[in-house]
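Quick one:
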Amino acid sequence: MPADLTARPILVTAVGGAPGFDLARMLLDRGYPVIAADADPYAAGLFLPGVTPRVLPLSGADHYAAALLELCRTHRPAALIPTDEGEILRLIDVRERIEALDVRTWLPTHDAVSACHDKAVFHQRAREHGIPTPRTWLPDQLGWIPDGLDLVVKPRRGHGAQQVQFCRTARQARLLCELVDDPIVQERITGTEFTADCLADRTGTVSVIPRRRLRVRNGLAVAAATFRDDQVAEAVTATVRAVGMTGLCCVQGFLTDSPDRIVITEVNARIAGAFPVSVAAGADLVGQFLNGAFSLPVDHDRLRFSPEIYLVKYVETLAAGAMPLAAARPVGSPIPAEVIAGGLR
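Output:
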């Protein structure tokens, strides 16, 4: 592990979501100092005991980059690990300025993140590389939908199962497109749903740790189990290479009864919400990612895993009591230490 990580913190963003929350907690458990950042002053990860909490602007705000750079300049993190795709797109634009502050990152290319973030672009990229993916139509292509298909209407750039609607006909899909932001319509796939945690190094070598999504709530697997399947590993590896991802990402798909058997539905250019099950199964995802961020070799032997390792998630209470968190506090200002301490004791 890079030596200066023992003295300098790691900055983890979007700690209000499951990926950032669990990553921040796992780093703390391994003895690393952590700066936890989010745009929501009530984000759960800001209340993890031991983190340095900071509130940043929304990644779409004009002053987001300036606030992030000031945070890096002030707190000198050794590395920055973003856990939200929209934020990653902004960070790519200021990558050189971040690294000029001696903060390590491992960000994919803008093209790779766009291919993951935009479901229409991903569908086109997957089909170009012969990767089975759901049939997909934009709102002006609904007349091409054949009869008899179950359909899904969802935001073209959405995440977390937000605004996802199911229907049976193109006419119903047309109506739902009026309700969903920037919609896309896809064939609904059924079967055993899986996610694969992936770490792709800069040489194109990809480690794949697949898990069955046993229970899903709001797009997040709250129960999961690792499994082995060579065909899944091959399909996932081909998908990661097709979109050009490096670093941590996750691929979702289905095991089906169709001739294709494996259908890939999407790629997320970030660590997954249930990645702790892969770590519990023996895959050193976090340690090897940090190696790559510091330009050290990724040891794929350390990413081997055991099948049938299970994960169950549940809502937990992090703070209760007098917590005068002021939502009107200037963006970018820290949560007072006495508030954190008072709420957690």
